[in-house]
TrEMBL record:
Cofactor(s) in the UniProt record: Mg(2+); Mn(2+); pyridoxal 5'-phosphate; Ca(2+)
Domain Tryptophan synthase beta chain-like PALP: 14-302
UniProt xrefs under CDD domains: Thr-dehyd
Modified residues (N6-(pyridoxal phosphate)lysine): K51
Alphabetical UniProt keywords: Lyase, Magnesium, Pyridoxal phosphate
KW Ribosomal protein (keyword) present: no
Protein name: threonine ammonia-lyase
UniProt cross-references to Pfam families, sorted A to Z: PALP
Family recorded in the similarity comment: Belongs to the serine/threonine dehydratase family.
GO biological process: D-serine biosynthetic process
Amino acid sequence: MVTVKNIYKAREQISDVINKTPILSSSQLSSICGNRMFFKAEHLQKTGAFKIRGATNKVKQAVKDGATFVTAASSGNHGQAVAYIANELGVPATIVVPEDVNPSKEAAIKAYNGEIERCGLTSAERLPRAEALAAENNGGVIPPYDDPLIIAGQGTVGLEILDQLDGVDVVVVPIGGGGLISGILTAIKEIKPSIKVIGVEPEKANDTYQSIQQGKITSIKEAATIADGLRTSQPGSLTFPIVQKYVDEIVLISEAEIRKALFFILQRMKQLIEPSSAVTVAAAMFDKLNVRDKNVVCVLSGGNVDLKQLGEMNPEK
């Protein structure tokens, strides 16, 4: 299992690449939520999301171990992050994307000199192709979340929160495959276990919530949520035990609540975040946290929104 020692090592490994993102605040949201609200702004991170942390940790190690090529199966933030750090290190990268990849995401990967290969429509189809490419090219596959180096890299978000803000009571984290929350949980619970960590999932992508309820990894049939970064069908085999051990609570958010939170942040704080980030804000806005008069930090995990689709997310439509 990943430990806080691994996360400190990851911080050293990635410090020359990543940004130490700011913590924002909002007096208006604080008033609405009945807490002092803070926001860890990973949407302002390089490549627009926290994913660069874990990707940098993993790709750097792969190159140290002799990899001359890297690949990932991803249509979104992870693929962009892998392409970015591979380009920085001078290593070619191919990102295996679905046949119906979003054009803006494809363009972002190409902007970092990543090669694109289309394969199928599901991750189950893309991952074997990525593994085959790695075998053919003396390369390494960079997993999106279920890997110790990825988890440790994402855990550096937790270290920064503790460094940047005194008196944190609650940290609210979105859950997809679990890489981000398992890293943050490890950092915070091993350093300051009194801090409450609450995970948030969309109602339509509640695989980790279901898994906690069942006491074992449980799959869901479909994750049809607007929060595309959280559309996993089950938590990872490495991430889930960490979440199971440490998480204080997991709450669920409706699609309407996600839309309202996203546009509130855009209109009032002038911050463009993606729906996957908005789930943490929604949890606070719609009283899912069950805390009052506390210092609450919501992790804004990313800001890579397709502007053509932004109007479709408007809660007033």
